[in-house]
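Components:
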Amino acid sequence: QVQLQESGPGLVNSSETLSLTCKLSGDSLITYYWSWIRQTPGKGLEWIGYVYPTGHTAYNPSLKSRVTISADKSKNQFSLKLTSVTAADTALYYCARGTMVGDRWFDPWGQGILVTVSS
Amino acid sequence: EIVLTQSPGILSLSPGDRATLSCVASQSVSSSYLAWYHQKPGQAPRLLIYGASKRATGIPDRFSGSGSGTDFTLTISRLEPEDFGIYYCQQYVNSVFTFGPGTKVDLK
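Structure:
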């Protein structure tokens, strides 16, 4: 059974860098694409970007200048860094497995981690 | 940027009812790139339908998806108590994934 678990600080100061990690179990990072998605009451679900284990990445243009997603195959985990955060980055952050061959979907998702940006 | 519009915003139904949820895209979407998710309070979204009409693993056959181009539909033939929650559609166009705002299915 594939499971993903997000971890990281629940509180980040404004203008600093948000860093999260997603640990994968029950599957190998060397297949599929691995995404970060966030959810807020105001904007709903927003795809942040993905990483493929080769290092190939793609980001949402709205966040591209501030986002880095990377994969660590040896630890079977991938990470998100979002720089210069503001209150607008306060959200529930999910990691998810996806595919870029044929159909496009996200399954499964992690349970999510709430990150609050403090001013 | 492509926009997904879901309707209705809220659907108040009873167990056993049929639910029909709509997802309209602002421009044509490949059916392969259209998916539906269900989210219960306090939980992550769960994949229901991908490729517009294919049920994900473990999803009961009371869930069905249809549509093409800009208009897609999720149908729940007979609502079970565990089906209440929010349903989202998702598409992939121009190298970006976007989600609709959701339809809330609640108990009448």
